[in-house]
Design brief:
single chain, 95 residues, alpha+beta, two-stranded antiparallel sheet, two-stranded antiparallel ribbon
Length: 95
């Protein structure tokens, strides 16, 4: 209920009667809640249309045998760390 609009008439009895009617009228309360619910649904729909950015990471370690040969170079102990940090940005255009 938009009580601010009714307060412009500067009538306390009118304001009190409107508050009493609003307290007793459950259909009016349900309608007001439905309006607020639909406003939030519109905001959620707008948020789904915005670009999204996702970030995920992965850390792994590759252990090889005790003796690794790379051409003429031999490495007695060999381990390799892999860091993966993909960043994905997406935007969907509705036509």
């Amino acid at each position: 209920m938009n009580l601010e609009w009714w307060e412009k008439f500067n009538d306390e009895k009118l304001n009190n009667n409107l508050l009493k009617v609003y307290d007793k009228n459950y259909d009016l309360k349900n309608a007001a809640l439905k309006v607020k619910e639909n406003e939030q649904l519109v905001k959620m729909q707008f948020a789904n249309e915005l670009p999204s950015l996702s970030l995920s990471g992965d850390l792994s370690r590759d252990l090889r045998g005790p003796y690794q040969q790379f051409g003429n170079m031999a490495i007695p102990t060999y381990s390799q760390y892999n860091y993966l940090l993909p960043i994905t940005a997406s935007y969907e255009v509705d036509i």
